[in-house]
Amino acid sequence: MWGMGQAGTARGRPRTFDRDAALAAATRLFWERGYEATSLNELTEAMGIRPGSLYAAFGDKKALFKEVVHAYARSPVGAFIGVALREEPTAYQAFARILREAATIYPDPSHPAGCLTISAATNVTVQDAEIAAFLRDLRNANLVVLQDHLRTAQQDGELPPHADPRALAGYFAVVIQGMSQRARDGADATELAEIAELALTAWPKREPGPPS
């Protein structure tokens, strides 16, 4: 999970409407300001479309935001965790890559700091609790993926028997979320890289065997 342009133009949509460009503009605005603080007027201005065109192309603000999140999750910036888990031969190499890439991606000045799915739904109102739940469910689903990866590593003998995959996944999820927030607070790649390397020292080591 982590649509494309349509042929023709819908009623009320300008002839020059570029759906992907409009979605990119909305993504940046939500990423910078969060869901609650982003108004429809700001969205239509940033996207270069009229309110009627926004509704025709994307539905309401909630539907637009959900499409933004799904598109973000498919982008290199949003998909790096899943890519590392698929491509690295060991769990340790995957988690090391995730933390090190987070250290460079989250403070990258080419886009808003941090992770959109971590920061976009802070301080939402009761009326928008659905959005907070939507992002929470995505983050929890990602946590399950980390847990499953670590359980498999334990079954394969990479993690020692005393390791707790659930606690370890939670720990690294907390570190990743914290790195996102530190980036939003101004931390640079050097600081985040130091945090990543420190976090990796928590990787479970095999207990020494009995003396021979």
Structural overview:
The protein is mainly α and 212 residues long. It folds into two domains: 19-72, Homeodomain-like (Arc Repressor Mutant, subunit A, Orthogonal Bundle); 75-201, Orthogonal Bundle (Tetracycline Repressor, domain 2), CATH 1.10.357. It is built from ten helices and no strands. Helix 6 (91-105) packs parallel to helix 9 (165-184), helix 8 crosses helix 9 and helix 9 packs antiparallel against helix 10. This is DNA-binding transcriptional regulator, AcrR family. Keywords: DNA-binding, Transcription, Transcription regulation. One of its GO terms (molecular function) is DNA binding. InterPro entries: Homeodomain-like_sf, HTH_TetR, Tet_transcr_reg_TetR-rel_C_sf, TetR_C. Residues 16-76 form the HTH tetR-type domain.
**Total beta strands:** 0
* Structural class computed from helices and strand pairing: mainly alpha
How helix-rich are the residues, as a percent range? 55-70%
Number of domains: 2
CATH fold-type name of the largest domain: Tetracycline Repressor, domain 2
